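Why does residue order matter? Because the sequence determines the fold. Keep that principle in mind as you read this record.
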Amino acid sequence: MKHWLSMLDHAPAELAELIADARRMKAGDSADALRGKILGMVFFNPSLRTRTSFEAAMLRFGGHAISLDVGGDTWNLEHRDGVVMDADRAEHVKEAAPVLSRYCDALAVRTFAGLKNANEDAADSLIRAFARYSTVPLINMESAMEHPCQGMADWMTVEEKLGPTRGRNFVLTWAPQAKAVPMAVPHSAALSAAAAGMNLTIAHPKGYELNAGILDRAQSWCESAGGKFQITHDQSAACEIADVVYVKSWGSTAFYGNADAQKEDFRRYASWMVDPRHLVGQKTILMHCLPVRRNVVISDAALDDPRCVVVDQAENRLWTQAAILNRLLRR
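Structure:
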């Protein structure tokens, strides 16, 4: 495995092996797996869990992490080729990535979608530029299109809570927000559920469709595992049969570049906020990647319900990322 950029680069069986690795590492195996290794992390956007879980994973398994905030700790970085760099970006990824590669054994980058042009977001050009110019393994800590580390932690959490995942009913439901947010997390949640052999239902209002290419792969993986894939606009009906209710907001491409219109549309669908009525089964688990806006995305009552596993989910970021780092850096 050269880089960890996208779940689409790996077969479900390979992803399942990573989950098994993560569970072994959580149980206490491979205590010095990353000894002497250095991870360089480049953040274009804020982070709480991603930064801390990667640093904790490196330290726990004997390595070290360096965190850099673009525009704060470092120069603003340009990633487009052929650009006349006479604005606010003083350094190009073409130099920054190979330089950081000389200092570190692996690099990791976090950035978000621009939410202005769907085709530009789908190209995931920033993370791809780092991969092109890095000479060491590169990890996607979230990009315009995917959050594959989160997807793996989601899979691990379902397996821990419910046992074998094949045939389980995974409902990914849209929820309203206070502002436009990217599709990376729902994309990875859908891919992880499909790769794990679950029946995948995606519920969202009309106009909030996810990327067609991602959905095609998720459907293919579901069907290969003998599962079902469906998209619905009926949130309540979808949740009636759910073993997992995975909640995530995302913006509509129809409102890219129009924040006011997007905010108004979120208000229009305020009733999609998830609360205990969506947790129909006694063993149904509630998931969200965090951070979550209480009483906008999910109600207090649902988040405080014992069936909510968001903290366990967040912890498992550490273990799945440790497994990814070990796979990339082991000799």
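Residues 150-313 form a domain with the Rossmann fold fold (CATH 3.40.50.1370).
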